[in-house]
Amino acid sequence: MSTSSIQANTVTEDRKRELLMEARRARLSWIQSSLPYKHSNEEIVKKSNTIGSSDKPDHKDDIDNIDILKDAPIAKHLPSAIPVLNNLLQSKSDLPIQAWTDKIKTRRERIQSEALVNALDDHAFIFYYQEILQRLSMPESMDLVQGIRHFVRSFSDLAKQPGQAVHKLVSSIQKHMKSVYSVIAVHSSWRGDNTHETKMMLETFIYSKCNGMILDALRKEDDGGDNAEENKFTDRLEFLQFIQPSHLEIDCFPTGEVEDSWKDILSKPITLLQSIDRLYSPTQMLRCVLEVYRGVNDALQTALASEKALDGSSTRMPSADDILPTLILTLICAKPNQILTNLKFLELFATQEQMRGEAGYAFTNLFSATQFIRELDLDREGETENGGPTLKIDSADLKQKLSMFQEKVNESRIDNDDTAHDAATLDGESKTSAESNTLDERKI
């Protein structure tokens, strides 16, 4: 008899039950760790999703804690976060600074999640998603869950291969989604539940486990992983914050003493655009993009109705000539995080069926809006030699705004350097004080 056979026979029934319980806990933990939305401070590549030998998450956090402290309510009334940091370092509380920053993060995430749910009217989505997690947690669904976990492992291995093309990742996950839908159609515990809602929840669950790997692959394919194009686009959006409807020849929004009153009318699509980066699956994102498009259309209808009430003209419906400039205005105002990467994700990972109809049309309009901003000529007035888009603004005024923006960027860099230096100094003083206290205790 082999050594392995002897060892197998020596495993007691109690030990077997213990191992089964450990496996069950690990499976349930893996299921319940999936959230319907990303946290705003979530690391793009989550090693926990690759399901290593321990299935424990990597707690790497690239968020600058100084920025986190700026979100504390008291910091809103102070010139910088330094006084907050100073008070925490000198506090006699037993809680470490990391615990305080975690509290601030949690509060911010809760507020942002509530805003997203309200904007999407997504209370039903949350309910359905929790129901799907409960069904996946049932013992009868163990084979289905094991299949998904096996897929995520193989997907992780595929994503790590050098020179791996994104289209292979697309093919892999779309093929697996079809397989999952086929399984639940005949699975006894799912009772043939193959509805649109169930498919959307399962798609969100699986993409939540693969999201970091996908986005990392997209960035590496586009610009080598340094995010240069995304950062360049973000800088351009930041510069264009002076934009008013008149610069895009939108004349239906109210003008007068309150210069930015149009932002209130566009508040819902602005919030939705800011939320796209917190979604996982193609269905989720396309649904959000469609709501952005509808929100812009509703805002235009409201503005046109107000225009009619003021001048007595006949009511007209928004046209494509109205919607695209207003969508560009909304995009500039929203400054959505990682919008280029997310649109690339939709372009590649959404199926032809998902891209059909109104959702596909809304995506095309949003993509066109980003292209307009990317190609926008900020050096000329009027039509450019190559036919590129321009703003309706005097060239001298534009140059002045560009110069003011550059000065603001330089000042911001100086402030950030000073803040980092002050934080490092305070942290060093805190450590020195702690070491001194430790020495005093040893003497005692």
Question: Which properties best describe this structure?
Answer:
17 helices
Tertiary shape: globular
* Helical fraction: 55-70%
Strand count, sense and closure of the main sheet?
none
Count of alpha and pi helical runs: 17
Radius of gyration, taken over Cα atoms and rounded to an integer in Å: 26 Å
Count the E strands.
0
Fraction of residues in β-strands: under 5%
Average per-residue pLDDT, rounded, comes to: 75
End-to-end span in angstroms? Answer: 63 Å
SSE ordering:
HHHHHHHHHHHHHHHHH
Structural class: mainly alpha
| Uncertain residue segments | 41-64, 433-444
Strand and helix layout:
Elements: H1 3-9, H2 13-32, H3 65-69, H4 82-90, H5 97-120, H6 123-136, H7 142-160, H8 166-186, H9 196-223, H10 228-239, H11 261-265, H12 267-275, H13 282-311, H14 320-334, H15 339-349, H16 357-375, H17 395-443
